Amino acid sequence: VELPPNLSENTYTEIDLRKNRLEFFPIALGDMKGLEVLLLSRNPIAFPDTLRGFNDLIYLDLWDTDIDQLPIYVQGFKSLKKIDLRNTYLDEENRAELEKLFPGVEIQLTAPCICKPKR
C-alpha cells in the first residue's frame, strides 16, 4: 500500500485501508492527529503493535482480520465509541473481557463457532 506523503501534516479524519493485503499496520499512520475513523477490515493483519495514540478515534474497523487479542494500550483510545471485531479470532466468548477493557464502547462480535483457523 502506498500512503500519501506527509500524513502527519494533514488533517485526515478517516483512513480507509480495507482489502489492501496489509500484514502489518503502516507505521506512518501512528503520527496522525485527529483521525476519527480507521478502516482496516479484510486484511490479513494481526493486531499491530504500532497502533497507538489516536486520542480522537471514534470507530475502529477490524472486521475479517487475524486479530486474536487487543493489547492494553488500545484503552488509550479515549474517544472510541465503536469497534468491529466480527469475523476475527475474538468472538462472543470474549465479550465480558472486552467490555471491561472498553466500557461504554459498542463492540461488534461474531457468534462463537468451531471453525478452521484462517491462518
What does this structure look like?
The chain is 6% helix and 13% strand. The protein is built from 1 helix and 5 strands. Strands 1-2-3-4-5 form a 5-stranded parallel β-sheet, with helices on one face. The model has no long low-confidence stretch (mean pLDDT 81).
What are the main properties of this structure?
119 residues, 1 helix, mainly beta
Provide the residue-averaged pLDDT.
Answer: 81
Low-confidence segments, ≥5 residues, pLDDT <50?
none
> What Rg do the Cα atoms give?
14 Å
How much beta, percentage-wise?
5-15%
Number of helices: 1
H/E element order? EEEEHE
Helix content: under 10%
How many runs of DSSP E, i.e. beta strands? 5
- From the spread of the alpha carbons, the general shape counts as globular
Helix-strand makeup class: mainly beta
The biggest beta sheet reads: 5 strands, parallel
Gap between N and C termini: 21 Å
Report the oligomer.
single chain
- Main-sheet strand order equals 1-2-3-4-5
Secondary-structure blueprint of this entry?
Blueprint: E1 14-16, E2 37-39, E3 59-61, E4 82-84, H1 95-101, E5 106-108
Parallel strand pairs: 1-2, 2-3, 3-4, 4-5
Q: Can you describe this structure in just a few lines?
A:
The protein has one helix at 95-101, and strands at 14-16, 37-39, 59-61, 82-84, 106-108.
